[in-house]
């Protein structure tokens, strides 16, 4: 499975299997760029500031600034731009839906087209386009975070950012372990589903050949063995962790330490400037 | 630190690595899986634990590092009595390699998985780096450190699981049917690793159904019906057809052949492997 695997982008090496292309999100792509070398905490904060900048952008110049900024930063990661485009591709129908809803429901501004009682307005077109641009930029650009950071580093950064919450009794270590194990189990559960599907197909119950209603019924029967298998694997993983002396919230040293440098401060400053500019424009 | 000086290590069979006194366990107190089990395993010994499925082998090894709580009795590991306070220390003394390597990986890469245990020991970065390079090099996985565990073969995965345990420098290593999901080549590779570990002074406790692995070990403990049905050498086990049947075991080829040659008047002893069998028989071929 591809999650969490550092890969080399197309053009630099042979492409991975088709399954990898479909699960681009959450996969790190190693190119050794300056963004890759940043502290994961600065990247996480940067992405939060980017979301704020998107929400503050309410004009065409602000949208243009966001787009130019995003392309420049994305290019500087040395990851081919089509990877970012692919990250947003699964949401294309959702974006189309948002655009159509805005176009049909907003009745402000000059009427662009009127057929009887039905009319399309300038504000509907503008707000629909803004919503699509915002969603596209949000999904495509924030993929930078997972493209340039391995899941382990991302977790370490998240733990670092959440560490002040220790004072109110929140355990960042517990939270990030939960997130990383949940992500680790996605391919495991997919494997488990494949095993059960193949076992059922070998006994003559091939899911792909069943009518829709039967398919639904069959998927429900899949749940029990898949969940039972996932629990069994989870139990084995817990044994493996405990056998290696793991105990929640016990002190641990770190092989990869977080280091905040001038580049991290510059990275954050870029996003603050972007937010201010987007709000002014 | 010298490998032989580590806690629980000694090439000579000296003090006990594991001591069990009247240990019992059962999910249901009415039907205990293990009852009144007592045994001693000296440091540096290579022990095979055999028995049919459901005889309590995996349960026994899980009791040793408190992955399961014992119902009664006393467990001592390298002189330390197992209690709530000593669990962490004992888990660092006993390393466990499980049957399915796929379910053991915590890290996203081989390196991260090996580091998972080392970070828990609160070691310095330099020490972690030293152990990572040393043990990955020893087991020939240095080139795999950056790989995702999903990219590895079964044998490579099991090597990674072993390195992640050995890097913690435990005194005792338990293998819970660690070769059962491997092909023959990987199984032979694992057997070579076990021989090297034994030569280095590790105490090895290995649950197995594989006759060649049993033959390579020094001592066999046979579990049956929740108790110890036999405590003997591999040769003694293979001479006990009743116990072999009870434990669902078959004698290894090298053993069977040596028995047949002995019946024909050619005593060659008990070779530990097919390779040793060939080496033993070769002089007879040359003297013809």
TrEMBL record, chain B:
Localization per Swiss-Prot or TrEMBL: Cell membrane
Single GO molecular function: ATP hydrolysis activity
Annotated ranges, domain ABC transporter: 18-250
Protein topology in the membrane: Peripheral membrane protein
Organism of derivation: Paenibacillus rhizophilus
Stored CDD domains: ABC_cobalt_CbiO_domain1
A Pfam family it matches: ABC_tran
SMART domains in alphabetical order: AAA (SM00382)
Annotated protein name in UniProt: ATP-binding cassette domain-containing protein
GO cellular component, one term: ATP-binding cassette (ABC) transporter complex
The keyword Transport belongs to this UniProt entry's keyword annotation: yes
Transmembrane parts of this sequence: none
UniProt xrefs under PROSITE patterns: ABC_TRANSPORTER_1, ABC_TRANSPORTER_2
Keywords: ATP-binding, Cell membrane, Membrane, Nucleotide-binding, Translocase, Transport
Family assignment from sequence similarity: Belongs to the ABC transporter superfamily.
Record carries keyword Membrane: yes
């Amino acid at each position: 499975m591809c999650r969490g695997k550092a890969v080399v982008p197309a053009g630099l090496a042979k492409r991975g299997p088709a399954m990898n292309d479909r699960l681009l999100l959450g996969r790190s792509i190693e190119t050794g760029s300056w963004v890759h070398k940043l502290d994961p905490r600065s990247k996480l904060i940067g992405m939060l500031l980017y979301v704020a900048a998107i929400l503050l952008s309410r004009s065409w110049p602000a949208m243009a600034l966001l787009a130019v900024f995003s392309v420049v930063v994305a290019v500087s990661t040395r990851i081919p731009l089509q990877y970012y485009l692919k990250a947003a591709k699964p949401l294309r129908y959702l974006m189309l839906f948002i655009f159509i809803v805005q176009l049909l429901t907003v009745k402000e501004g000059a009427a662009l087209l009127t057929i009887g009682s039905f009319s399309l307005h300038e504000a509907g077109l503008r707000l629909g386009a803004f919503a699509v641009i915002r969603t596209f930029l949000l999904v495509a650009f924030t993929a930078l975070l997972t493209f340039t950071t391995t899941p382990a580093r991302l977790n370490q950064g998240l733990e670092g950012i959440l560490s002040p919450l220790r004072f109110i009794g929140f355990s960042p270590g517990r939270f990030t372990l939960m997130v990383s194990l949940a992500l680790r189990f996605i391919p495991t559960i997919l494997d488990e589903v494949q095993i059960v599907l193949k076992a059922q197909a070998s006994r003559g119950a091939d899911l792909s050949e069943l009518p829709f209603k039967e398919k639904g019924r069959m998927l429900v029967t899949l749940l029990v063995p898949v969940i039972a298998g996932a629990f069994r694997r989870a139990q084995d993983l817990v044994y493996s962790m405990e056998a290696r002396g793991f105990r929640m919230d016990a002190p641990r040293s770190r092989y990869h330490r977080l280091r905040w440098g001038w580049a991290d401060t510059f990275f954050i400053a870029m996003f603050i400037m972007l937010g201010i500019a987007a709000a002014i424009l | 630190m010298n490998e032989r000086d580590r806690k629980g290590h000694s090439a000579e069979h000296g003090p006990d690595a594991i001591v069990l006194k009247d240990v019992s366990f059962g999910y249901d107190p009415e039907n205990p899986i293990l009852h009144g089990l007592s045994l001693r395993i000296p440091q540096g010994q290579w022990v095979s634990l055999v028995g049919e499925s459901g005889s309590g082998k995996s349960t026994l090894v899980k009791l040793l590092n408190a992955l399961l709580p014992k119902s009664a009795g006393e467990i001592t590991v390298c002189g330390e009595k197992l209690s709530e306070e000593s669990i962490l220390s004992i888990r660092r003394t006993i390393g466990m390699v499980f049957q399915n390597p796929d379910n053991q990986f915590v890290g996203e890469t081989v390196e991260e998985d090996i580091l998972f245990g080392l970070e828990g020991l609160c070691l310095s970065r330099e020490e972690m780096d030293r152990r990572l390079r040393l043990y990955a090099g020893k087991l020939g996985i240095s080139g795999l450190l950056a790989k995702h565990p999903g990219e590895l073969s079964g044998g490579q995965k099991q090597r990674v699981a072993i390195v992640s345990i050995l890097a913690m420098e435990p005194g005792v290593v338990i293998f819970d049917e660690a070769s059962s999901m491997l092909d023959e080549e990987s199984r032979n590779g694992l057997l070579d690793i076990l021989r090297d570990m034994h030569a280095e002074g590790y105490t090895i406790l290995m649950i197995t159904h594989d006759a060649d692995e049993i033959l390579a070990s020094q001592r066999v403990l046979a579990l049956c019906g929740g108790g110890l049905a036999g405590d003997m050498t591999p040769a003694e086990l293979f001479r006990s057809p009743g116990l072999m049947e009870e434990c669902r075991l078959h004698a290894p080829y090298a053993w069977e052949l040596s028995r047949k040659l002995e019946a024909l008047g050619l005593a060659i002893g008990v070779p530990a492997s097919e390779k040793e069998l060939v080496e033993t028989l070769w002089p007879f071929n040359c003297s013809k």
